[in-house]
Design goal:
It is a single chain. It contains nine helices and seven strands; from the N terminus they run E-H-E-H-H-E-E-H-H-E-H-E-H-H-E-H. The chain is α/β, with parallel strands linked by helices and about 210 residues long. It has one domain: 3-Layer(aba) Sandwich (Rossmann fold). A five-stranded parallel beta sheet has the order 2-5-1-6-7. A two-stranded antiparallel sheet has the order 3-4. The structure holds cytidine-5'-monophosphate.
């Protein structure tokens, strides 16, 4: 496990996806978007008309769904019961309920195991909230990305997502199981004043120092 995973954690819209994609291309690593996995479970729960705040019902639904994780062109893919939810993963309803579903310990246990399985397919750069703290605590390569709240809200608006980033971050940071936090050994990268290119350069500098 040790040198095969780069963990990128941080709040919503801190630039994790952009950085992970560019690192994946530059270092030839599989990019795994762990948030998409939590979103996929949430999507299915909502599709079945299950109350996302009803933990027992969510766990039951989880047991009944078939999750298939894969890779296409070095990017993680996910299907639920044979269907790729596509853009629906980023819908308003998924945005507003994903924090409740991802706070359920059984959901996390199941998805963390699928996330670790990616190492069977190759080296990874994985982004999320608990990658450095829970999924790959042994990796030396850990970056915690951050940016000013106003910068993060503005980034969300650019991509057309108007959910309250702040509410999701509060829920993700305050939950009992695997809350968003700076993992032991992680280096904080604040991207507020960075361009995409300078952010990538800064990240590579950090990773060099950690290796
Ligand atoms: O990264 P993204 O914003 O797509 O993640 C959506 C949600 O999934 C987060 O707000 C969080 O509730 C959950 N998540 C998580 N642990 C991860 C990745 C995402 O709890 N490793």
């Amino acid at each position: 496990i040790l040198h095969r995973a780069i963990a990128i954690d941080g709040p919503a819209a801190s630039g994790k996806s952009t950085l992970s994609r560019l690192l994946s291309q530059r270092l030839n690593l599989i990019m795994v978007n762990s948030g998409a996995m939590y979103r996929a479970v949430t999507w299915k729960v909502l599709q079945r008309g299950i109350d996302p705040n009803d933990r027992e019902a969510v766990v039951q639904a989880l047991r009944e769904m078939e999750l298939e994780c894969g890779v296409a062109d070095l990017v993680s893919t996910i299907k639920v019961d044979g269907i790729d939810p596509g853009d629906e993963l980023r819908s308003e309803s998924v945005n507003s309920h994903v924090s409740a579903v991802s706070a359920v310990p059984e959901v996390r246990e199941c998805l963390v195991s699928l996330q670790r399985d990616y190492l069977k397919l190759g080296d990874v750069v994985m982004e999320g909230r608990d990658i450095g703290s829970v999924v790959f605590p042994e990796t030396p390569f850990k970056i915690y990305m951050d940016a000013d709240p106003s910068v993060r809200e503005a980034r969300r608006e650019v991509v057309g997502e108007v959910d309250s980033v702040a509410a999701r971050d509060r829920a993700d940071s305050g939950r009992a199981t695997a809350p968003l936090k700076i993992a032991e050994g992680a280096c904080v990268l604040d991207t507020s004043g960075h361009t995409i290119e300078s952010g990538v350069e800064a990240a590579i500098e950090i990773l060099r120092g950690q290796g």
